[in-house]
């Protein structure tokens, strides 16, 4: 089995060789560079593996850019950190940028997107639960982190099933609190992403009644950044995404090695990563396509109808093309 760290080195060497024959695809004449790029990460996003590899630091070194990593439990705090200037870029689900645009963090913009989520986010119930489908949740408690991807996942699942939000009880909990409540029977269902999703399945035998990819409208992951950083340093974002794209392709092509590598570098057990990794929709593309924009606008409209946000928004207004 070819060691993952050697494969990473091979890719970096190849990129250097290509660079010898001209500007790489992300580089433009006259590019300017920040002294530091602050990157927000969450467990389960591909930036976690990129941090562990150390390859981004090597890529930025010739430009005098230092890389700093800051970890967040879920998307809403990451958005706030971007808005206040503590973080320059990070990966989130569909909900946080919608909340940001509606008023909580107006300085946040979309800069890239990830493939639509399929099986990496699940709505789960205890193994012995009588709940088999969304309609069975009427009158029951559903937990998720407020403002997270799980928030709109649950709202869209209910809408698709014709169940009004008023027919269920929402319980806003952090991931650690939701896990405890789930195990003790204090909640009936929980919207949770990998790797916490895989961890809960393995530990409790939880059943999935709906995967996020089963919703009627695709739910994409997004890379968001501060408007000012995207305006001043698009080359830094292009380089980040170029390295991330190559690393992600490598990691997904070698899941066993990647799971072991992540286990060693994150403290999350190997069996959890082995279960979660095949479900993770890693990748990065820019700029946002019309298809992605339509799907995200649908989510924004749903958020307004369900009074998650106070006003209608047009997601196109906060998209930045970094090419």
From TrEMBL:
Residues 1-29 form the signal peptide. Belongs to the bacterial solute-binding protein SsuA/TauA family. The keyword Signal applies. PROSITE patterns: PROKAR_LIPOPROTEIN (PS51257). Keywords: Signal, Transport. It comes from Paraburkholderia susongensis. It comes from the Bacteria. It holds the Pfam family NMT1. Part of a binding-protein-dependent transport system for aliphatic sulfonates. Putative binding protein. It is found in: Periplasm. This is Putative aliphatic sulfonates-binding protein.
């Amino acid at each position: 089995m070819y060691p993952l760290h050697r494969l990473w080195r091979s890719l970096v060497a190849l990129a250097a060789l290509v660079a010898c024959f001209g500007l790489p695809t992300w580089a433009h004449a006259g590019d300017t560079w920040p002294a530091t790029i602050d990157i927000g990460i969450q467990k389960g996003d591909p930036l976690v593996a990129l941090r562990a590899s150390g390859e981004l630091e090597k890529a930025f070194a010739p430009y005098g850019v230092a890389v700093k990593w800051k970890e967040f439990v879920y998307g809403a705090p990451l958005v706030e950190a971007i808005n206040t200037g503590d973080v320059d870029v990070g990966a989130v689900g569909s909900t946080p940028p919608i909340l940001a645009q509606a008023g909580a963090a107006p300085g946040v913009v979309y800069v890239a997107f990830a493939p639509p989520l399929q099986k990496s986010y699940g709505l789960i119930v205890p193994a012995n639960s009588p709940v088999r489908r969304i309609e069975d949740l009427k009158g029951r408690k559903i937990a998720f982190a407020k403002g997270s991807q799980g928030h709109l996942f649950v709202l869209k699942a209910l809408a698709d099933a014709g169940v009004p939000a008023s027919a269920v009880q929402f319980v806003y909990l952090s991931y650690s609190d939701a896990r405890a409540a789930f195990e003790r029977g204090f909640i009936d269902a929980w919207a949770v992403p990998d790797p916490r999703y895989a961890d809960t399945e393995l530990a409790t035998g939880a059943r999935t009644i709906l995967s996020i990819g089963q919703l009627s409208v695709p739910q994409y992951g997004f890379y968001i950044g501060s408007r000012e950083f995207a305006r001043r340093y698009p080359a830094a974002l292009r380089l980040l995404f170029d390295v991330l794209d190559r690393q992600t392709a490598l990691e997904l092509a070698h899941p066993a090695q990647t799971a072991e590598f992540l286990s060693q570098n994150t403290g999350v057990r190997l069996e959890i990563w082995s279960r979660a990794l095949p479900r993770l929709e890693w990748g990065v593309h820019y700029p946002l396509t019309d298809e992605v924009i339509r799907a995200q606008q649908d989510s924004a409209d749903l958020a307004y109808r369900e009074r998650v946000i106070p006003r209608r928004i047009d997601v196109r207004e906060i998209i930045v093309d970094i090419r």
